[in-house]
Amino acid sequence: MARSPYRLPKIPEMTIRRLSVYTRCLLQLEEDGVKTISSQDLAERFSLNSAQVRKDLAYFGEFGVRGIGYYVSGLKAELQRILGLDREWPVALVGFGNLGSALFHYKGFARQGFRIAIVVDDDPEKIGRQVDGVPIVASRELGRELKARGVQIAILAVPPEAAQPVTDQLVAAGIKSILNFAPARLRVPRDVRLKHVDLSIELETLSFYLAKGAR
Amino acid sequence: MARSPYRLPKIPEMTIRRLSVYTRCLLQLEEDGVKTISSQDLAERFSLNSAQVRKDLAYFGEFGVRGIGYYVSGLKAELQRILGLDREWPVALVGFGNLGSALFHYKGFARQGFRIAIVVDDDPEKIGRQVDGVPIVASRELGRELKARGVQIAILAVPPEAAQPVTDQLVAAGIKSILNFAPARLRVPRDVRLKHVDLSIELETLSFYLAKGAR
Q1: How close are the terminal C-alpha atoms of chain A, in Å?
Q2: Which end of chain A, C or N, has fewer beta carbons within 10 A?
Q3: What's the CATH architecture for A13-81?
Q4: What angle do CA A20, A63, A18 make, to 5 degrees?
Q5: Helix or strand run (H / E) with residue B44
Q6: Three-state secondary structure call for residue B62
Q7: pTM
Q8: Who contacts B34 (Cβ-Cβ below 8 Å, separation ≥6)?
Q9: CA proximity to B101, closest of A104, A135, A33
Q10: What is the number of other CB atoms lying within 10 angstroms of the CB of residue B161?
Q11: Per-residue pLDDT averaged across B148-175, rounded?
């Protein structure tokens, strides 16, 4: 039988995002010595929606056991595998100013297997230096360096006006996944996955509730 | 008739988050000179779900006009008002290391009306100095300074081991909204709203697709 390209349902991006959240919840439960948990208890403990949890997980298989719920460690390992967190991802950090430097030292990336393998910055003061053993290279060396280090993901932390030219260089170098911290609208080809991080969105949830309380 | 406490449906936090996203989409449309848009076109253009858009907006009123759709500028202004973005919020930035410094210079906050009014750091080298006109104060001065400046929101960018003690100080000083960038689990009283920002979640959506492609 021919393999159908439609065999898997399209998985919403919000489902992927929630898998990351579930993984963190399961990590906490594991730290707390919890062995099994029902979807109801999981939902209650972390303010999730239990129907949503079941629906999200159902895209990937049948993880619950009747009368027991989920095995915490087993489900965590499964989700990590699904998210590609069972391996290390060498990452390029592009831009080594304030934000780039903060992201370089951000502990959360390495803990999930994202290792910054190369830093890219065109400041002549920085090129050729190393930071914690990681070389800083100029953007014109991008193509060669990314290939040599097997980098498939780039984190963009350059000023807004540099974001598009640098993105074009990354795309030309074969990068298919970009996490953009620059407050700029970027154009990429259809086969490149671009995620935009907007830090002020989180603040807006807070101001919503403050404004609501003041009304 | 007595005012019922149940008169408004509970609004899911994801709805609030999506209002922020819609506001950004409407801003882009406004910049591009678009005057009106249907929920279908809005959804298509920004990869949203049109039923979700209508459901989210329905919590707050009837914004669509039959045969026209939404008025871009009008809806944008309404959503900004709902999100509390029609006013300025003085914010305290706690921690002025790498990440704190990056957040201080992050353009996205000010653009949405979040103005860093005070920086808190216990480094004796930093206390008493100013950064771009904003004073740096010690954490023991928190209570007085936050009150004097009308600060209701704090951004936490301290090392993980300092996060809980600093949070306790913020809570004691009357802060009810905290945006936490420290990779640490924090305990707060029930009336304090704590949002945790985990920058690696965004990377995990990318690794999911890369891992999926490699399978």
Answers
A1: 62
A2: N
A3: Orthogonal Bundle (1.10)
A4: 20
A5: helix B39-45
A6: coil
A7: 0.82
A8: B72
A9: A104
A10: 9
A11: 94
What CATH code is assigned to B13-82?
1.10.10.10
Query: Would you mind telling me the total number of residues written for chain A in this entry?
Result: 215
CA separation for the pair B70, B85 (Å, rounded): 20
Q: For chain B, give every domain's residue range.
A: 13-82, 89-200
Chain B residue with CA closest to A13: the answer is B205
Task: Indicate the angle between helix axes A142-149 and A160-172, nearest 10 degrees.
Answer: 60
Contacts of A155 in chain B (CB under 8 A): 203
**Cβ atoms B153, B175 nearer than 8 A:** yes
Report strand pairing: B70-71 vs B36-37.
Answer: antiparallel
Q: How far apart are CA A101 and CA A80, in angstroms?
A: 27
B72 in Cβ contact with B37 (< 8 Å) = yes
pLDDT per position as a tens digit, B37-64: 999 999 888 878 889 899 999 999 999 8
Counted across chains A and B, CB pairs separated by less than 8 A come out at 176
What is the tens place of the pLDDT at every residue in B68-98?
A: 999 999 999 999 999 999 999 999 999 999 8
Ramachandran region, residue B128 (left: φ > 0; alpha: ψ -120 to 50; beta: rest): left
Question: Do β-strands B130-131 and B134-137 pair in parallel, antiparallel, or remain unpaired?
Answer: antiparallel
Q: What is the ipTM of this complex?
A: 0.85
| Mean pLDDT of the B3-15 span | 66
Q: How many CB atoms lie within 10 A of CB A16?
A: 21
> Do the Cβ atoms of B207 and A28 come within 8 Å?
no
- The full DSSP string for B107-163 is HHHHHTTEEEEEEE---TTTTT-EETTEEEE-GGGHHHHHHHHT--EEEE-S-HHHH
Which tokens hold the place of A70? Answer: 């989920």
- How distant is the Cα of A144 from the closest Cα of chain B, in angstroms? 21
Non-local CB neighbours of B55 within 8 Å, separated by 6+ positions: none
Using an 8 Å CB-CB cutoff, list chain B residues near A17: 201, 205
Q: In chain B, whose CA is at the least distance from the CA of A196?
A: B202
| CATH annotation of A89-200 | 3.40.50.720
| Cβ pair B121, B100 in contact under 8 A | yes
Average pLDDT, chain B: 90
Considering only CB atoms, which chain A residues are within 8 Å of B21? 201
Residues from chain A that touch B45, judged by Cβ atoms under 8 A, are: none
| Cβ <8 Å between B99 and A84 | no
